Amino acid sequence: MAAETISTAPQSPPARVFPRLGPELTAALRALTPREIVLQVPAGLVRDAHGMAARLREEVGSSVVLAVRPCFGACDFPSRDEAPRADVAVVLGHAPIPNVALLRPTFFVEMREPPGDVERLAETVAATAVPRRIGLVLSVQHLDLTGPLAAALAHRGFDVRLGRGDRRLAYAAQALGCNYTSAEAVAADVEAFLFVGTGRFHPLGLAFAVDRPVWSLDPLRNAIDPPIDRGALVRRRQLLVASVRDARRWGILVSTFAGQNRSPAARALQARAQARGRDAELLVFDRLDPRDLEGRALDAYVNTACPRIALDDASNYPKPVLTPPEFLMALGELPLEPYRFDTYH
Predict the structure, then answer these.
(1) 139: closest CA among 77, 201, 190?
(2) Class assignment of domain 118-228?
(3) Model pTM?
(4) For 291, which DSSP code?
(5) What are phi and psi of 12, to 5 degrees?
(6) Secondary structure percentages of the chain, helix, strand, coil, to 5
(7) What is the mean pLDDT of each run of 10 residues along the chain (345 residues)?
(8) CATH class as words, domain 4-109
(9) Going edge to edge, which strands form the sheet with 279-285?
């Protein structure tokens, strides 16, 4: 995969995309002659961050600063305040989100993994009880497996579907923590989904988003995990919703991050709450810390920032935190079934 340019939101600097670190990236950076580069790396690459910064500094000839805070995704790129002198950003481990406006020219290095032994992976899948009609969903690092693995599985009798998501996804079959519309597009045509990638973050999000079994294939270990118990996940959320149906005082959480700011949605939810006789306060933040919500005279919260704050980190907060669809369930405006994932469009 060669470097490419992906269109971003109107009046936004373009996003340049590179499969991995290498001479194409450094040549493109040199051509811009940046005064300063801000380099952002995900948690898994922090150990190598200083070496990467030194390499860019030497090969490009520009000042390089490292964004230190944790990075949660392509929606979470360095702000102007974090790197005021930087005129170029290099973001590792993520693909651009096409409908998110960038603050400066940004080079996304997706850190793609080579496909490896595709036939061996397909054999691992075929040896399990994975249904034959499946949707394929992959993390960005393993998207180069999409075509080869789909073909190898088809050769073994699988009917493989690849969905094209909405404007928030750069690629077909891509997984994004806040958006699984590539899977939703083919959910009616499949019996199950096969997620290809590492870790549990994306399989859990996918299980919330689609009412189908989600199997997980780790291509680095050539290991496959059985389906997540979606029913248990959903029941826990429904019990949480039921527990706050009588809550009178709500805090509506609003992120100022460009890729997570849903202020119009937050104000609409505030109006819905007030129309139902509830108090609703907008609480604005850049990065949310559970301690920020301690001691407040509120009964519960609804989160309009990253949907995974409510789903993955609920136990960290002093009061219940719902997603917007769950909030509408609590108000009685949506039924508990079917459960609706808070897809961020």
Answers:
(1) 201
(2) alpha beta
(3) 0.92
(4) G
(5) -110, 145
(6) 35, 20, 45
(7) 64 86 96 96 88 96 91 84 94 94 93 96 98 98 98 98 96 97 98 97 97 98 96 97 98 91 96 97 92 95 94 92 98 96 91
(8) alpha beta
(9) 279-285, 249-255, 300-303, 321-322
